Amino acid sequence: MHHIHGTYNFPLVILSVFISIFASYASLNIIDRVVLKQGRSRFLWILFGSCVEGLGIWSMHFVGMLAFHLTFEVTYDPWLLVLSMILPVCAAFIAMQFVSRENVTHFQTVLGGLFMGIIPGCSQ
């Protein structure tokens, strides 16, 4: 059995954490605005918020991957890279649809959390 050894660039790991915190904070602020909107304006706020949260998730993961240095060259497939950016945005959009309603049930909160946890995790 072969083991792959690598090292971490800790400043990039810390940057990854800050990206996650900032994206979460920004998307929660956007959710506050979504609750007050209706119609097309509401849809646009949800779309914008899902882009902020989804790309924040993606950025956190990608910076985290860049922080891990291996002893061999690592390359990324551009199409899979783009797909890995789209999936978290879609998951965030679905989750924001659930949690931005006026009366959110516990089931809707759990369902929104599942979309945020499962779909982006599959894209990495």
From TrEMBL:
InterPro entries in the cross-refs: MHYT_dom
Residues that span the membrane, as ranges: 12-31, 43-67, 79-99
UniProt keyword Membrane, yes or no: yes
Any coiled-coil regions, as ranges: none
Presence of the UniProt keyword Transmembrane helix in the record: yes
Pfam families xref list: MHYT (PF03707)
Top-level taxonomic group: Bacteria
Alphabetized UniProt keyword annotations: Membrane, Transmembrane, Transmembrane helix
Chain ranges of the MHYT domain: 8-124
Record's protein name: MHYT domain-containing protein
Organism: Paenibacillus residui
